[in-house]
Write the structure tokens for this entry.
Amino acid sequence: MDDTLAGAGPGAAPLRAALESASAARASIDWEAVHDKLAHRRAELEETFAGRGPWADAVLARRADELAETPRLHGEESSGTPMLVARGAETLYGLELRHLGQIVPMPRLARVPGTPPAVLGVIAVAGRVMRLFDLDRLCGGLGALPATGGGPAEPGYAVVLRTGAGRPAALRLWEVDRVAGIVPPRAAAPAEAGPLVRTITADRMAILDMAALLDFVKS
């Protein structure tokens, strides 16, 4: 206790008690546990910003919920369907967010001999092994992301699909732009766009038919 309070008389008793209580509280803090908790939080944040871990999934799911629950004013049109806007080699795609699980920088890729051109190989995400499809090639394009044999610095992203009980699968894309509420045009895409493109927006975004895409990758 501070010597300046030792002879201060009975009026200083409440202050002495408060100081002694604060000292006891400081002494009871487990600083090692505090440091461990902070380190764990830092590691979780690093995983999230790298597109890995449960927090990354939670952020994506929460953003989808926020877009889906955006209130509308009286007479206002729908804010649209929550979609991931992403780029292939030459095409801008819209993918419904509710069908997506994770988005991660391109993992190490293992080639599989004899697979169709649209199947680049297999990857592992969060301990799950899955086929990786080139979305450009699925939609009839040539693709500009050739499978190069598994180098760790390959460009692009792997977008893991929610396939339920079906075979796990992911799509490879060049860039991930944003999450937005998109109102798809009512007009169907022309036949030459292929069976996986539902419609095309005025800014030339190909809105995917996610049901057809999931049926294809799970087969």
In short: The helical segments are 13-28, 31-49, 53-68, 135-138, 210-218.
